[in-house]
Design a protein that fits this description.
The structure is a single chain. The chain is an alpha/beta fold. It has two domains: about 10-180, Vaccinia Virus protein VP39 (Rossmann fold), CATH 3.40.50; about 190-255, Orthogonal Bundle (Helicase, Ruva Protein, domain 3). The protein has 13 helices and nine strands. It has helices spanning about 15-20, 40-45, 60-65, 70-75, 105-115, 125-130, 140-150, 190-200, 205-210, 215-220, 220-230, 230-235, 245-255, and strands spanning about 10, 30-35, 50-55, 75-80, 95-100, 120-125, 150-160, 165, 170-180. The strands form two sheets. It has a seven-stranded mixed beta sheet with strand order 4-3-2-5-6-9-7. Strands 1-8 form a two-stranded antiparallel sheet. Helix 5 (about 105-115) links the parallel strand 5 and strand 6 (about 120-125). The longest helix has 13 residues, at about 190-200. The termini are far apart. The chain binds S-adenosylmethionine (SAM). S-adenosylmethionine binds next to strand 1, helix 2 and strand 3.
Length: about 260
């Protein structure tokens, strides 16, 4: 019986090596989320990484503690018991994980806020597709815009359900994410985040009717001023028709 959902373990060492070899991690501080039975953890340690792993399942932590007794004692591995969405994050440069898919969204936003150099993360394929959906396309959403604003995301490879035990119902995709400065400068990141969240919470409404609901937070006068400053074509669009530059324009005009 599985104690938690999202417990689909990698079994093929060649796939694990393919993930662990994407970056040179020797001597680097690597955060792993959900080490499970430790197959990826072992590969990261074998490549000379200094690993901190966050695991929720107490039973798995007991077996990890005995399987990695030496590494824990030497300090090349630290295990944090808890929910990766809630526990204080350690300092790290690189994050590598076969993620628990139910926390894909909150953990990705959390990692982007925390900042890192590179991330190699396995997601449900549909989630990765949404991440990559270009601005201005139907599939584009808050996740796509926030990732594409603050990071460069590349698909490394896909994996079928059979690569895991037990097999999940979905295919998986390994993504390489590297934060970068936004292509279109953003005056206030919190305002940008508010705009993107609000617009995609009402994706069937026009920009004009959605930004009016920001009055409670930013004040009616400021929001009316924003509507006057914006191009009518942007105001009459739905969020999925906007380009990255448009989100920056809306947010910067609200900030100025
Ligand atoms: N890395 C292992 C592998 O590739 O075989 C296990 C991956 S499995 C998909 C996800 C792991 O994340 C499980 O060990 C599960 O217990 C753990 N997990 C689930 N939710 C978590 C959370 N909120 N915080 C930390 N770990 C979590």
């Amino acid at each position: 019986m599985r104690a938690y959902k999202d417990q689909h373990f990698l079994t093929d060492p060649r796939i694990v090596a393919r993930i662990a070899d994407i970056l040179d991690i020797s001597g680097r501080r690597v955060l792993e989320i959900g080490p499970g039975r430790g197959i990826l953890t072992r590969a990261l340690l074998d490549r000379g990484a200094i690993v901190t792993a966050i695991e929720l399942d107490k039973k798995l932590i007991v077996s990890l503690s005995s399987d990695f007794y030496t590494e824990l004692k030497q300090g090349s591995l630290t295990i944090i018991a808890g929910d990766a969405v809630k526990v204080p994050l350690p300092s790290f440069e690189i994050v590598m994980a076969n993620l628990p898919y139910s926390i894909s969204s909150p953990i990705t936003f959390r990692l982007l806020d925390a900042g890192f150099e590179s991330a190699i993360l396995m997601y449900q394929k549909e989630f990765a597709d949404r991440m990559m959906a270009p601005a201005g396309s139907r599939e584009c959403g808050r996740l796509s815009i926030m990732i594409q604003t603050y990071a460069r995301a590349n698909r490394c490879f896909d994996l079928p359900p059979g690569a895991f035990s037990p097999p999940p119902a979905v295919s998986s995709t390994v993504m390489w994410i590297e934060p970068r400065e936004p292509l279109f400068p953003i005056m206030e990141r919190t305002v940008y985040g508010d705009i993107v969240r609000e617009l995609f919470s009402h994706r069937r409404k026009t920009v004009k009717s959605t930004i009016k609901s920001l009055s409670s937070k930013y004040g009616r006068e400021k929001v009316e001023e924003l509507c006057e400053k914006l191009d009518p074509e942007i105001l009459s669009s739905r969020p999925e028709a906007l380009y990255l530059e448009d989100f920056a324009t809306i947010s910067n005009k609200l900030s100025s």
